[in-house]
Amino acid sequence: MTTRIAFLRAVNVGKRRVTSDQLRAVCEDLGYADVGTYINSGNAHFETTGSRASIEQAMGEALEKELGFECTTFVRTLTELKKALSAKPFDVADGDTYFITFLKDPPTAAQKSALEGLSGDIDTLVVLGRDVHWRMHGTSMESALTKRHWEKILGPLSSTSRNTTMLTKLAARLG
């Protein structure tokens, strides 16, 4: 069994609500062991076997059935999360905000170039495998990038982002 972390896209915004209890129950119903959640923003961790793609598909289908809306899920192993957090593609200064955006698959060379081309005075994007490291000089409210920018390059339902402060705490919690 491997420790996996699932990140749900766009939950607990608008009418797309999922509680930690609901998320835990879906994971347990799927047969995952040692299920837990971390902050109420669509993050679950558990032990299971199987491929990343099969876990993402099973969770997405089970969550949609339970919640009544599409629930795209991105899964990483704890090792993959720690590797992403150890990457240092740029300096992060006081006052900066740093996200890792999870993708299903590594982008093509053209998509990588287009994503990194979105960088500007506020936003810096660096693609490393299936992850996009995104530094903002300031807060996310000051970012010039919107969902539309990402979807124009990658298509709909293609990514979910988490703040590295939260990810670092989650990785430490999991050991």
Automatic annotation (TrEMBL):
Look up the domain of life of the source: Bacteria
Family annotation (Pfam families)? DUF1697
User: Which InterPro entries does the entry link to?
Assistant: DUF1697
Task: List the SUPFAM superfamilies.
Answer: SP0830-like
Q: Which PANTHER family match?
A: BLL4334 PROTEIN, DUF1697 DOMAIN-CONTAINING PROTEIN
Q: What is this protein called?
A: DUF1697 domain-containing protein
Q: Which organism is it from?
A: Nostocoides australiense Ben110
